[in-house]
Amino acid sequence: MADEIHTRCCIAGGGPAGMMLGLLLARAGVHVIVLEKHGDFLRDFRGDTVHPSTLEIMHELGLLASFLQRPHDEVRELSVNISDRMVKVANFSRLKTQCKFIAMMPQWDFLDFLRDEAVLYPNFRLIQNARVDALLEDSERVSGVHVTTPDGELRVHADLVIGADGRHSTVREAAGLQVRNLGAPIDVLWLRLPTAAGDPGTTGARLDAGQFFVMLHRGTYWQCAYVIAKGGIEKIHAAGLPAFHAELSRIAPMFADRVGSLQSWDDIKLLSVSVDRLEQWWKPGLLCIGDAAHAMSPVGGIGINLAIQDAVATANILALSLANPAIDPLALTPFLAKVQTRRLFPTRVTQAAQVTIQDRILVPVVNRKQDQPLSVPWPLRLLNLLPVLRGIPAYAVGVGVRPEHVYSPANAKKLPRHAPATSESGSPVPPS
């Protein structure tokens, strides 16, 4: 027989949206449980770009200084190498934000930080190794989730369920919410290559005929993204690993002596890109946010930051009501619709921009024959000639459409930071 627990809000998914929302709700005095299907956050090839908009949220929470103590790299400009011509694209120095850079930080470090802050609130619980299998529903609303853990089955009854479980969301599928697919003609191969003496210390990208390669400097290694046509992985596999090594060496000659570190296809991870969004993000008792509500393309590294904005908006709109146990769960429904109304416009604009870049820039580049020279598009030439214009893409990437600010209250007291907090998986949570 399944164990049963009750909470005011249950969040399915311990990614950026789920952990940030859990922290904000706990801070507002809401009893909240976050369910994470893995035992930790240590997974590679996830969004590592923490943009100025997210750093601004950290500042508003009074957490920026401690957050930036975590290992990270600061990217103050974005540039791209097009057929061996370096083109400067974005400069964050003119942004009216606390931080005028992108912080490159492994997502597991980012999530560890949010967890370390959230567990200081006694009304916050993190249950790991907890896989959501199904929704609990009564005649009026979603009333909780059914969970499988190593210790057995668990039924979490909640006044509100938040689906923050990513682009392959079990919650949104179980809820029967309709998904609108916007199309994604590309996939991405993620791989790691070691650093070497003399390497540049900054993040960058390389474009050439038939190739688009992004390099994220991660200190002791490079995290690289190789853009391919949708479904192109089969052709690459058929050509063999040595041919892939040769292709990488051509697009990024600095790695020619290191591509052999990719010893099997297991070292190369496929991200099947999808761009979609729910027609309706909610039903009584349930709200989806982040990738569960709108899967984003990796273009611009915006996905993690849009998810954070969703979490902040959700807390701003719902925290006070959730913190008041006298408010009936069904009375929360209009607020769920309000979250979607608030966040739908920036989602639409961002996805439209991503689809445009995919269709008009990335696909022509990827499909271009190697004997056809790739010239610098005139908008990029203009950015190179007029540096002041680089603030426009910097704002679009670093801040985005309708940035959110923290208005949810701070009504709960923290435990002393030295307190021996633990997650519900039983594993100790180290203090920050």
Question: Care to describe what's here?
Answer:
It contains 11 helices and 21 strands. By secondary structure, the chain is an alpha+beta fold. It has 2 domains: 3-182 and 274-398, FAD/NAD(P)-binding domain; 186-229 and 231-271. The strands form 4 sheets. Strands 1, 2, 8, 9, 10, 11, 19 and 20 form an 8-stranded mixed β-sheet that branches. Strand 15 (211-217) and strand 16 (221-229) form a beta hairpin. The protein is globular and about 70 Å long.
CATH class of the largest domain: Alpha Beta
Largest sheet: 8 strands, mixed
- Number of beta strands: 21
Q: What helical percentage do the residues reach?
A: 25-40%
Give a summary of the structure in a few sentences:
By secondary structure, the chain is an alpha+beta fold. Helix content is 31%, strand content 27%.
Layout: helices, strands, pairs:
Layout: E1 3-12, H1 16-27, E2 32-36, E3 49-50, H2 52-60, H3 64-67, E4 73-75, E5 77-82, E6 85-91, E7 102-104, H4 107-118, E8 124-128, E9 131-137, E10 142-149, E11 152-163, H5 170-175, E12 179-181, E13 186-194, E14 204-208, E15 211-217, E16 221-229, H6 233-239, H7 241-251, E17 268-271, E18 276-278, E19 282-283, E20 286-288, E21 294-295, H8 303-323, H9 333-367, H10 378-385, H11 391-398
Parallel strand pairs: 1-2, 1-11, 2-8, 5-14, 11-20
Antiparallel strand pairs: 3-7, 4-7, 5-6, 9-10, 10-11, 12-18, 13-16, 13-17, 14-15, 15-16, 18-21, 19-20
Characteristic key phrases:
alpha+beta; FAD/NAD(P)-binding domain; 2 domains; 7-stranded mixed β-sheet; 31% helix; disordered C terminus
